[in-house]
Amino acid sequence: MSLISIVSFAILFMLFLSFLRKGRDLFAPGRLFLIVWLSAIGLTELKLSWFQYEWSVYSWIVLLVCLLSTLLGIYVVYVLNFGKENSTVKQQRIIFDNSNINSRKLFVLIIIMFSLYLFSYAVIYQVVGYVPLFTPRPDLTRSKWGIFGLGLIIHIVPPIIYFVVIYTLITKKNVLKKIVLFAVAAVSVISYIFLVQRFDLIMAVVVSAVYLFYASKKLNPRNTLILLVVAGLLLYGVSTLRTSNLYININYIFSKMKFSSAYAFITEPYMYVCMNLENLAHASEKISSYTYGFYTFDFVWAVSGLKHQIIEYANLNEFYGLITPSYNTFTLYYAFYRDFGLFGAFVLSSMLGVVFGKLYYNLKYRPILSNLSLYGMFVFVIIFSFFIPMISFLHFVFNVLVVFFVSKICTKE
Quick check: 230 and 189 in contact, CB under 8 A? Predict the structure, then answer.
């Protein structure tokens, strides 16, 4: 184990110990960000695959500039709000317990979202003629399942599940409606699993967990364990659906793992953490020209329908700098660096840190559903910042807007 791994895990252990103090905020942005990235760096530095290599000084500079500038942005917001009166987690729970959410409107909006989801699902199935899970190669067909426009609505599953959780929590009666919404959530989850996708389902779990923590006392150690188990099943259970034991062993061989094949099942989760950082380090050494906003603002080109034309016209390689095609993700910061280089990555990462801090303090100053929902979405960004630049993705921006506006509509003024 390298010195970097030892230091990362030691600091990580101390951060986890800090949660033992009563009243500690589990989702404070600075601490959560450190936990995510210390875990990722510590695991990466174990170097359990022969695909991994010793990084150059410049690669370390790129990563540290991105991480430290994000923390700087969070810290600036903290300093600006230091000493100002704001609500504690306990006070927020009291405020949300005296719910100012219109449950009638919320129920109607959930049904509307679910109807749109079912309509889109049915139309896409009629056009493409299959559901990925029931094809011979679901790992390949899942990426081709969709139609422009309707494919975006399919991603509305996280808001559906999230608002079902909220409705169930705030409504003491209306048993029949709760049964209906339970069926809605079950159909949404099961049908989405048929698409062999897990990203949106994990999003629903994370955002719901944030709501449960700030709006209730439901997120106790037992329920936290249950949510972790659910998240684990979604991450690796859906993965199992789209793979097989043969694939797991082949993946172990092609990933050039250094440990025994008896632990081949560890290959995918380990590589999906560490190869993002390895790809960013590798790409930062290769990139010599920049794309000036194309990847950072990917959602703009996607919604305009120009994305693929621009890629073809400019002859862009979407996965430039990959170490191996088997693992094709680069972390949140790849888009910033590829678009604007080191200085641009510093500026954009700092701005992102300010956004994290600002949303957090918005919730502390004004504990209303829209502020809580927005912060929950960006907690998801923090947790998976080691993985993909999700803030650039159209379906993530779409879900942020849906969650925000539904929360806004259902809040009693």
Answer: no
Cα separation, 35 vs 166, in Å, equals: 27
* Token reading at 253: 């061989």
Q: How far apart are CA 396 and CA 203, in angstroms?
A: 10
Mean of pLDDT values over 289-306:
91
Tens of pLDDT, residues 226-268: 766 666 666 655 555 445 566 677 778 888 888 888 888 788 8
Report yes or no on whether pTM surpasses 0.85: yes
HEC states along the chain? CCHHHHHHHHHHHHHHHHCCCCCCCCCCHHHHHHHHHHHHHHHHCCCCECCCCCCCHHHHHHHHHHHHHHHHHHHHHHHHHCCCCCCCHHHHHHHHHCCCECHHHHHHHHHHHHHHHHHHHHHHHHHHCCCHHHCCCHHHHHHHCCCCCHHHHHHHHHHHHHHHHHHHHHCCCCHHHHHHHHHHHHHHHHHHHCCCCCHHHHHHHHHHHHHHHHHCCCCCHHHHHHHHHHHHHHHHHHHHHCCCHHHHHHHHHHCCECCCHHHHHHHHHHHHHHHHHHHHHHHHHHCCCCCCCCCCCHHHHHHHCCHHHHHHHHCCCCCCCCCCCCCCCCCCHHHHHHHHHHHHHHHHHHHHHHHHHHHHHHHHHCCCHHHHHHHHHHHHHHHCCCCCCHHHCHHHHHHHHHHHHHHHHHECC
How far, in Å, are 210, 274, 275 from residue 325 at the CA level?
34, 14, 11
Residues 6+ apart with CB under 8 A from 401: none
Instruction: Look up residue 61 and give its two tokens.
Output: 């500079």
Largest CA distance in the chain: 61
> Is the pLDDT reported for residue 44 higher than 70?
yes
The whole-angstrom separation of Cα 24 and Cα 13 is 16
